[in-house]
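ugh ok so i messed up the first submission bc i forgot one of the chains. this is the corrected input, ALL of the components this time, i swear. 589 residues overall. if the numbers dont match what u have on ur side tell me asap before i send this to the collaborators (the ones from the other lab, u know who)
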Amino acid sequence: MESPILLIENDPYTAKEIAEILFESGYQSIIKDSLQEAERCLQDMSFKVIIQSNEYQQEEQLNFIEKLKSEQTTRWIPLIIISDTNNDSFRIECFNRGVDDFLLKPVKPIELIARVKGWISRVGNLEEMAFRDPLTKAYNRRYFDHQIILELQRSQRNGYPISLAFVDADKFKSINDTHGHHIGDLVLQGLSEILRRQTRSVDIVARYGGEEFVVLMPNTNGEQAAQRMQDILEFVRINPIAKHNEKEYFVTFSCGVAQWITNMPVFDWVKLADEGVYAAKEQGRNRVILSKVKENHQAIDNNKTLIAVVIGSKHVAELIRTEEFNIPLSVFEFDKYEEAVFQETDICILALQKELEPERFKKFREEKLPRDCKVLLVTETRSEKDVLQSIEAGIDGYIRSPFSDIDLEISVKRLIYSN
Amino acid sequence: MREWTADDTLKMLYHIKAPIVLLDVSHKWTEPSVREICVGADEILFIVDPLLPIRFFRKETKRNTDVIFEIRNMNKSANIIANRDVKVPNRNEWLKSLPLTPLSVIPEFPYHEVIKSIWSNTFITDNEDIRNELIYSLYGVINLLVPKDFPIKRLKKQHRGGLISKFFGG
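and heres the new structure output, hopefully the right one now
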C-alpha cells in the first residue's frame, strides 16, 4: 500500500472535507485529532505528507514541528501548515523550525492539491535517488551504513535497546536458475515489500547486497526483534511473495538477530547478526536465530610484544630497541633481503640507500613475509617516483633519512595501530 | 524554503561523481548537523597544528577531541593529520600530546610561497619541491584513501599540480 497523508485536525467536519479533497486526487488520509495522537501514529506508520490544519497554542505547535524535523525518520516528510493565524512572526518561526509550506485559510482545494503533489514529487524523487535501492525500493547499503550509526547514537543517548536482523532469502540461487532472473527480481521485490510493510516506520529495512536484507529495529531488544522476524517468516511461509502469469512463488528466509551491547563496534554487531544467518542455514534454513555475544569476543592482547625484523640499518635497529622508543618489540636484524631468515614477524623495517625495486620487494614479500605483516621503508632517496611506486608496491609506511627519533616512533606506531 | 540540513548535504555529496569527495567542515565538527555528516563519511581526518600549546590537555579541547574516539569506537575510520610541523625544541612534546598517532605529519611551508601561489593564481603544488615534500608527507593519507590497485604512478605528470591536485584540487 502507498503511504497515506497524515491529517491533523480536531474538527471532524473540516477533517472530512480535507480528506475528501485529497481522496478525489487519489490520496488516502489518516486523520488524527491531536498532536500527541499524530506523534504516536508517526512511530508506527510512514506518511507521504503531513497536513496540520487546526490551531494550537503556538509554542505547542512550534515544539511539534521542531521535534518532527529533528527526528531522522520524520524529517523528510513534507509538513504543510494550514492556519487561520495571519501573523508574520509566527509564520516565520514555523519556517525556522522546519515547516515546508504554510497556507492561510481559506485554502482553495486546487491549490492544496497542487502543493501536496509538488512536495511528494520533489521529496519522493530526492530520497529515491540518493538512498533507495532501485530494484527493491528498500534503503540502500550506503544509507544503512550511515543510519546504523545515527540510530546507535540515539539509542545510547536515550538508553533504549536496539537490535539488528540479517535476512537472507533461502535457495535464491535455485530460484534464479530454475525460473530466471526476472522471477528472482520479483522475489526480491516481494520480500522487500513484505519486510517494509510488516515492520514499523521507525525500523529501517535496507538491501545489504544480493539477496540479503537488514532490518534495524530501534527501541527493541533481541527477543522482541527475533519474535518480530519470526512473525514475518510465518507470514511468508503461507503467503506468496511474488506472482507472475498467474503463478505464485513462495520463499522462506534464514534470519540472524543480534541486540547491540555496550562498547560493541558496529562491525562486530553486524557480524554477530550475520553469524545467526549462517547458524540458521546450517540448521536447515527457514528459521530465525538470536545470536548471543560470546563473553570474550572483544579480548585484545594490548601487552603483547611484537616482533620486528630490521633489514639494512643497524642504526634503526638500535633506535627501536631503546626504552625511550616506548613500544615493546623483539628486534631481529639482517643486512640484506636475501640473508633475512625468520619464522614470523609483525613489522618489517626495510632500510634502502637507493630507490625501491618493486619486483624484488614483491618477491621478498611473497616468499618471506606473513600476510598481515606491515612494512616500513626507510630510504635515502628523495624522489617523488619512489614514493609513488612504494605506495603501488604495497609498502605501508615510508620515511626518509635523516629522521628524528619521534618521526621513526610515529611511523612504527602508525603501522601497529592502523586499522 | 526549508532549512538546509545535514541530510541535504549528504545527498548532494553522494551525487558528486569524483573519486574522492572532500568536505572541509572547518572547526565545526561538534555541531550536531556537521557531526552527522562526519559520521556518514568513509574517512574522517582531523587536522591539528601546534599553534596553541597545551591544547590537547584542556578539558574543553578533550571534550572536542573525544568525538574522534566515539567515531573510532563505532568502527569508523578517524585519523589525525599533524599540520604545520616545525622543527622547534618542543616538537616532540607537541607530537606526543596528540590524542592519536598522526596519519601524516605535514611540514610548515614557507609563508611567502603560499602567498606567492595565491597571488599568481597557481597551486602551491606547482612548485616541484613543495609537491615532492607534500606527497612524501601525505604518504599515510594517500595510502589510506587511494585504492590498492589504482595506477598512481601514471597520474603524476598528467595534471597541473600533479597528484595532489588530481585528487583534491579538481
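quick check: The radius of gyration of chain A is 30 Å. that seems consistent at least. Residues 109-131 of chain A form the longest helix (23 residues).
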